[in-house]
Prior knowledge:
The chain is an alpha/beta fold and about 220 residues long. The protein has helices at about 20-30, 45-50, 70, 95-100, 135-160, 175-185, 190-200, and strands at about 10-15, 35-40, 55-60, 75-80, 105-110, 120-130, 185, 210-215, 215-220. It has a 6-stranded mixed sheet. The protein has a 3-stranded mixed sheet with strand order 7-8-9.
Amino acid sequence: MTVPLRPSLLFLGKQDDPHCALAADFARKNFGDVTICLGKWGEPLPGAAREWEGDYVVSYLSRWVVPEAVMARAGTAAINFHPASPDYPGIGCNNFALYDNAPSYGATCHFMAAKVDTGAIIATKRFPVFAADDVESLLARTYAFQLVLFYEVVGAMAQGIPPVASGETWTRPPFTRKEFNELTILRPDMAPEEIARRIRATDFGSWKPTIEIAGFTFALT
């Protein structure tokens, strides 16, 4: 009896992140030849990733925009896990969901494309957003649901079932850095309700919205 070869995989993720560590360990145990690259914002993509060739590329909370040349070397598929539902592609996704008072949120698995967060959607995992949620609580729940989605999609891949497009689509173009930066600004002429929405959406640990007055910018404390 011939034992089928387990598919090979390139895992790209975030350094020093507990959810990413669990995902990487799952990949290591369930695939054949596994290359794991973890990094931080601003670091160059490692040579091991640039030179890799195999079956799957999986990006999970990765700090790199994956070059098209690397995607092309995935013989079966290159997929990404995005910590937001299809309503919120791009940057600052959870922030905009809180600002919008969105009733639900989630995590999305999709095929990679040249433009970030535009590839065909494979699967989503949704959950409710509560009135008491802030950036910290929404992020924590998002990462928990995203890890479950990872186990479902990548677990199927390990069993020889490649991902397929679900037919679900992104509902808007990806949010940009410019749009996110604008969300963090408070101005004296804003209504109190608008200020409260922006604070809820962008106040997270050491990250604070800023106040613009007469051409000067001040940090909110």
